[in-house]
Specification:
The chain has about 300 residues and is mostly loops. It has five helices and seven strands; from the N terminus they run ββαααβββββαα. Strand 4 and strand 5 form a beta hairpin.
Length: about 300
């Protein structure tokens, strides 16, 4: 019996605001290649190789820290309370509605609250926190420990944008904030990408389960392939057989108790080249393209 009913090989990635969205990448003005700087995860909204969206239009709505990595990571002032690499984003204490609360008989494995390798994605995608809500800003002395768990707009307002207006609004990925513009029917809807598909919210029942244990019984004769690669506490499907966990390898995270599926199992927020160095990244930051259900069939035997 399956963990969940695969809906037409993951034909629906996300459901937002009661609307279904077909799988596939969103339109983008970024080149979507070479570096995270050239993807929509560059929150400065200024592509390193030129072109791309107009970051100055976004400047009033999120701080332009003039640094791509700082929106998630900081080289200093490491947040010891969060077990993520040099983490810098606010992580609010949030209780999520999980897939197990659907009461479906197709779910045979235990589901917990999302683990760290989901929470890092949800810190933006659940819409509860502004995309620019970080703990340590660039420069000396721009650190506020209370930002670890709570967004303080007064602190965010201290940032001085040297290449555009200072932000007066610190928007999150939800209706009434970022989606005021990034959804149809708005005054700029014709030019702003529709981001509703990326607005996951706190109800996770309409997405692939995260925090769900991978069956310990797997391999031939079961519904699941065996992830034979191991790196630390993480198990992975070694797609190229090189014995190393590469960015294009689907993985399972053991953050206590068992190997689990998390957002980071299938998605790499930095982007994974589709056909080697210099090629465009796989759609929706996937580790494995789902053409022909290849992503689904990495784990599932069908």
């Amino acid at each position: 019996m399956n963990i969940l009913k695969i809906i037409s090989a993951a034909a629906l990635l996300f459901l937002g605001s009661g609307h279904a969205y077909a799988a596939g990448d969103l339109p983008t003005k970024f080149s979507n290649r070479d570096s995270i700087s050239n993807t929509r995860h560059n929150m400065t909204q200024r592509q390193e190789s030129g072109g791309g969206p107009s970051g100055s239009i976004m400047d009033p709505y999120r701080n332009d820290y003039e640094d791509v990595c700082i929106y998630c990571h900081t080289p200093n002032d490491v947040v010891a309370s969060v077990g993520l690499p040099l983490w810098n984003r606010t992580m609010k204490a949030t209780t999520y509605t999980t897939y197990s609360q659907l009461g479906t008989a197709s779910l045979t494995q235990p589901v917990s609250q999302p683990g760290l390798n989901s929470l890092l994605c949800l810190s933006c995608h659940d819409g509860q926190t502004a995309v620019d809500s970080i703990i340590s800003m660039p420069g000396s002395g721009r650190y506020q420990v209370s930002q670890e768990t709570s967004q303080d707009n007064a602190f965010l307002d201290t940032w001085n944008n040297t290449r555009g207006p200072d932000a007066t609004v610190h928007g999150g990925l939800k209706m009434g904030e970022c989606l005021v513009c990034h959804s149809p029917g708005t005054f700029v809807g014709a030019s702003a990408p529709d981001f509703r598909v990326a607005m996951i919210g706190t109800d996770l029942r309409n997405d692939h389960p995260v925090g769900v244990a991978f069956p310990q019984v797997n391999g031939p004769g079961t519904n699941f392939n065996t992830p034979w690669g191991v790196e630390g506490t993480t198990r992975y499907f070694d797609s190229n057989g090189n014995g190393t966990m590469d960015s294009g390898d689907v993985r399972l995270y053991d953050t206590g108790g068992s190997a689990k599926v998390e957002c980071g199992s299938c998605h790499d927020p930095h982007g994974v080249p589709s056909a080697g160095p210099g090629s465009t990244f796989k759609p929706t930051f996937l580790r494995v393209s789902n053409t022909g259900s290849a992503l689904c069939l990495t784990c599932h035997i069908k």
